[in-house]
């Protein structure tokens, strides 16, 4: 249970960092919310055209945060990991497209180049993956069930194989075993 709590906390922090990142500078002071999502997939590459909030990088990061919330509520490691892959995938795709548009990506001490928004998105994606790795997920409910073999040979199913000599039916044609709980030990 402690692993699920710790993993959930890491995942929620990662989702928060990812959603917050478009409101920070991504490259040369331009915020992530101003990069059009369509530019990442178009042949023309990243343009200087400003995007609306839900047509920008904000959209996939919010979708990843919603997937994270559902994953945490359902204790699903797979959903939390999927959210991390979405965040990292869009961040790397953005970096590739901006690198193609600009000719290179850089970081310098004057605030030019890659900004804190990219760092926040990367950190958020990594925290989502770490959170998914830490979580145990849902425990499987395992009732202690035992199989009860048939007490006597049974007739083959209609159209099935005939019993072998000695009255047994081949294993692949036997009916499925019934399940019951073992007797409780009250000592």
TrEMBL record:
Positions of the region Disordered? 140-187
Which keywords does the record carry?
Answer: Membrane, Transmembrane, Transmembrane helix
Q: Where is the composition biased (Low complexity)?
A: 161-172
| Superkingdom of the organism of origin | Bacteria
Q: Where are the transmembrane segments?
A: 49-71, 78-96, 116-135
Output compositional bias ranges, type Pro residues.
150-160
Q: What is this protein called?
A: Tryptophan-associated transmembrane protein
